[in-house]
Amino acid sequence: MNLFRLAGDMTHLLGILVLFRKIYTTKSCAGISLKTQELYVLVFLTRYMDLIVKYYSLYNTLAKLIFIGTSFATAWYMRYHKVVKQTYNKDQDTFRHYYLILVCFVLALLIPHDFTVSQVLWAFSIYLEAVAILPQLVLLQRSRNIDNLTGNYVFLLGTYRALYLLNWIYRFFTELHRVRWIPWISGLVQTALYADFFYYYIKSWKKHEELKLPA
User: Fold this and answer.
1) Are the beta carbons of 139 and 42 closer than 8 angstroms?
2) pTM
3) pLDDT of amino acid 210
4) CA 202, CA 206: separation in Å to the nearest integer?
5) pLDDT in tens, 188-211
6) Quick one: which of 170, 167, 166, 165 has its CA closest to 185?
7) Residue 35 contacts by C-beta under 8 Å, 6 or more apart in sequence?
8) What is the pLDDT of residue 84?
9) Sign of the C-alpha dihedral computed for residues 77, 79, 84 and 87 taken in this order
10) What pLDDT does residue 173 have?
11) Burial code of 16-45, b = ≥16 C-beta within 10 A, e = fewer?
């Protein structure tokens, strides 16, 4: 494992901890998209199906279980917790995320790494993760006030994907020089989706202003 991947995993985990802190300490999920969280549940379930049949390492297994478990826990709290669910911005979280699922599934059938069930599911998870943040970004644009914890959570998610993109580049030059178009292009698309948010996040941080995205 290289430094970029480790840093990406730790940044991803930190982002999840920030989200949990927001939900558990404030008993509020205001500003968080349930649709994005449900997409992440689908992403991790389909990507980590190999947990059932193959063991890589303790770190790998624990990381997969943590990401599956935390994504389920977040979605459950937002949908079913008697206090938290009342703070969900349902009227603003209206992105039609099922279109993303359909398009990514068709894309996985047409352009998988290999035509096996596991590889089609893996490709589907990569494609879906690239766009899973869209409902969250749209919700933030509609929200007049973005609290610090929500802003930090989204920033950490974007940073995690940028680090994973560097991980793939590093592996290309240091390992077998294999071209892996699916994660590369998906990573580029995902990082590009965060570009606008990164700009306004850093701008608000430098000026010590409240984070706001243009409508």
Assistant:
1) no
2) 0.91
3) 83
4) 6
5) 999 899 999 999 999 988 888 888
6) 165
7) 93, 95, 97, 135
8) 94
9) positive
10) 85
11) bebbbebbeeeebbbbbbbbbbbbbbbbbe
At residue 184 the predicted structure's pLDDT band, cuts being 50, 70 and 90, is confident
By CB neighbour count within 10 A (0-12 exposed, 13-18 middle, 19+ buried), where does 141 fall? middle
Q: Could you write out the DSSP letters of every residue in 202-215?
A: HHHHHHT--B----
pLDDT of residue 159 exceeding 90, the answer is yes
* Owner of token pair 């965060």: 194
DSSP code of 144?
Answer: S
Output DSSP code: residue 146.
B
The CB density around residue 164, as the number of other CB atoms within 10 Å, is: 22
Instruction: With residue 157 as reference, give the H or E element that holds it.
Output: helix 148-174
- The candidate with the shortest Cα–Cα distance to 90, out of 47, 55, 139, is 139
Is residue 33 classed as helix, strand or coil in its secondary structure? coil
The amino acid that residue 165 corresponds to is L
* CA separation for the pair 97, 210 (Å, rounded): 28
pLDDT at 34 over 90: yes
Residues whose CB falls within 8 Å of the CB of residue 21, separated by 6 or more in sequence, listed in order: 149
| Phi and psi angles of residue 211, each rounded to the nearest 5 degrees, phi first | -75, 125
CB 211 within 8 A of CB 200: yes
Beta strands in 37-189 (DSSP E): none
